[in-house]
Each structure stands twice: as C-alpha cells, then as structure tokens.
Amino acid sequence: MSAAAAAIYAPVLAVSLIASPPHLTARSWVFLAGTAVLQTGYFVFLLRAYRAGDLSAVYPIGRGSGALLAALGGIALLGERPGPVGLAGIGLLVMGVTVVGMPAHAGHSPATAAILFALATGIFIAAYTLWDKIAVTTVGNPPLLQGYAALAGMVPMLAPFALADAERTRLVWRRYRRQVLGAALLSPLAYVLVLVALTFSSVAAVAPAREVSVLFGVVLGRRMLGEGGLARRLAGAAAIVAGIIAVTVG
Predict the structure, then answer these.
(1) How far apart are CA 239 and CA 89, in angstroms?
(2) pLDDT (tens digit, 9 = 90+) per residue, 131-186?
(3) Cα separations (Å) of 220 from 47, 208, 214, 223?
(4) Considering the entire predicted model, what is its pTM?
(5) Which residues of 128-165 are buried (b: 16+ CB within 10 A; e: fewer)?
(6) Element (H, E) at 210
C-alpha cells in the first residue's frame, strides 16, 4: 500500500514542490523522517491487533485511545486548553474505550492481547499526530510533503518483511489489488486533509474529530465479519463519538 501510494502521489507532490518550493532545514528533515518511523510503528501494531481480535473491538479502542492521548498531549505539551465540555468529552472517550474493550466472555484471553496491541496503536496515533502538528506549524513543513514522507519512509522499512515472505506478498497483490490501490489512494488523502486542518486548528480538536469513523468500524465488523457483542460495542463506540464531538466543540 505504501509503495503504491508513493507512486500515485509522486506527480502530485512534484507539481506542488515546483509551484511552491519549500525551505527545508535540518530540522525539517528530522520531522520528515520521524513521521515515517512513527507511522510504521502504527501500522505494525494495528495489524497485530487485527490478528489478535475483532475489528469491531480493535478499531474503536485504537482510534479512541489515540484521539484521547493526542488531546491530552495537546494540553500537556502544546498548551491547548479545552473548556468544561472538552474535559467531559475526554471522560466519555475513556468510558467508551473501556466499554468496547471489555471481553465478550470471562477469561477470553485473545481479547486481552488485542486490547494491548490496540492501545499500543493508539499511542503511535497520538505520537505521530503531535509530531506532525509541530512539523506543519512550528517547523513549517508543507502538509503534502509531511504526509508523503511517511509513505516514502515506510517502503524501505517494511520492504524486508514483504520480501522475506515474497510468495505471500505476491498472493496478496493478486487477490486484493483493488483494495490495496483503493487504500493507497484514499488513506494518504484523508491524512493530508488532517495535516491541513492541523495548520490552523488545535490537536485537541482535530485528532478526536477524525475518529468519528469508529461507529462504522463496529457496524462493518458485525455486517461483513459476523462479529458479536454488537449492542455493547455500539454503545461504547457511541460514547467515543460523543466524547469526540464534545472535545472538538469544547
């Protein structure tokens, strides 16, 4: 996906850099390299979480905890100050992530591993969100370049794993080429829009707002994968979305 996205967006980036050449310093390059490292960690832990648990549990926990930690990081590190409504939203996020993460059955050990991997995913989400906020504001990296750096950097870091299991990599490409290309087109576009929003909005508002998709994750997990616990997970996801809206508004 990263390789395909790097190829798809290379002409777009070239036109952007020619039209508006950025002034890149040594610090700029550090932040371009750092986002690739953090987003590689995000993908590695996300995929491990998907292997260990249900989409309808892993997705809300990962995205919800990432939004929560990013908002808290914006408060602690960037001096952002949400009001009472925003603080109530943070509480709802905590409650929603807890509800979604409750195991469906007592002693259901796979859920524990999935929760831990999902929480690690959330840590990486918060880390790269705060990192990229500084990159596109304080450092001044263009959002498109900052987003593209993650794609270009992930390719050499993940290539050894793909090449080590070349047969499986070829099989995935043959069977799921359209899905890979769809993700390669849409995922970077979505995140570049987030980076643009970060240039003029706070992390405490933008990071939670992008995670409204947790409700879709729960519904799709039930409809497409037959996952259980729909009512409880929907209630938890709804609390996450309500918290996201409250943090964004407050």
Answers:
(1) 9
(2) 999 999 999 999 999 999 999 999 999 999 899 999 999 999 999 999 999 999 99
(3) 17, 20, 10, 5
(4) 0.81
(5) bbbbbbbbbeebebbbbbbbbbbbbbbbebbeeebeee
(6) none
